[in-house]
Amino acid sequence: MTTDPGDIVWHDHSVSRESREARLGQRGVVVWLTGLSGCGKSTIANALDRQLNEQGRATMLLDGDNIRHGLCAPPAALVQEHGQEFADRFGLGFGATDREENIRRIGSVASLMASAGLITLTAFVSPYRADRDRVRGIVTAAGRDTDFVEVFVDTPLEICESRDPKGLYKKARAGEIKHFTGISDPYEAPREPEIHLRGGDDRTPDQQAAEIRQWLAERGVLG
Ligand SMILES: Nc1ncnc2c1ncn2[C@@H]1O[C@H](COP(=O)(O)OS(=O)(=O)O)[C@@H](OP(=O)(O)O)[C@H]1O
Ligand SMILES: Nc1ncnc2c1ncn2[C@@H]1O[C@H](COP(=O)(O)OP(=O)(O)O)[C@@H](O)[C@H]1O
Question: In 3-state terms, what secondary structure has residue 4?
């Protein structure tokens, strides 16, 4: 038993991770898709989610836009229910510190899901190497070194911008959005991702998802 700072005591569970994974017939992992806005993260993650479920695997998908409606909501979404001081303190935007907290929260939740034996798919820009590396540390400390699978969805900025499905690149170019990744905010590409997906070629999202699924299967994640 370890005593964390502030005398918060960790409780070991009576149901082990191994027994949860054995019952599901799979390994719990975090498949962390990172890349520019518009690179294809969400589409590929959804395709992979569908393919894995069709195979009978237990999964969960966490996506940047969706999580920012709840767990990591902006101040404007919190102020009515919680008041301005709470909203300013806990609401998240896109400054570097806010993104650090966004990824810290998601990394902790994703690690819990992997510990439950789920193949946990996460699709977040997560532009800062240090933030992604901290999540890697959280996930692997809770399980195995191989439980964190970083997938770099490497779609050139020009293609992401030409897609611009939400019109955000246009707004960013017009200066209407501050700190926009790739335009007015940095993106630190993974140096050694487990999977380097080249985006913007003629492969479909299903084909890109199948590449990730094959990688997982070859390493015994899918039982
Ligand atoms: N300033 C800025 N920079 C980047 N992205 C922005 C920004 N403002 C809004 N959006 C939309 O928010 C989505 C990114 O949220 P994430 O939680 O994935 O970002 S991060 O991981 O905290 O960097 C991202 O969704 P995706 O396009 O699916 O990546 C954008 O649509
Ligand atoms: N392999 C692909 N080929 C062609 N278009 C794609 C591909 N993957 C994604 N897209 C398209 O690119 C746009 C952005 O995809 P999305 O998954 O929302 O990216 P992200 O989640 O990284 O912002 C969408 O219109 C989507 O349909």
Answer: strand
Residues of 170-204 as b/e, b for ≥16 C-beta within 10 angstroms? eebeeeebebbbbbebebeebeebbbebebbeebe
Q: What is the pLDDT of residues 175-184, one digit of tens each?
A: 999 999 999 9
In this prediction the pTM is 0.96
CATH 3.40.50.300 applies to domain 28-67+102-218: yes
pLDDT in tens, 30-46: 999 999 999 999 999 99
Q: Where exactly are the structural domains of the chain? A: 28-67+102-218
CA-nearest residue, atom 16 of ligand 2: 40
3-state secondary structure (DSSP) of residue 33: strand
Q: How far is the CA of 84 from the centre of ligand 1 (A)?
A: 23
Q: Residue 107: which of 43, 50, 46, 150 has the closest Cα?
A: 150
Rounded distance between C-alpha atoms, residue 184 and residue 61, angstroms:
28
The ipTM, to two decimals, is 0.98
| Ligand 1 and 102: CB distance under 6 A | yes
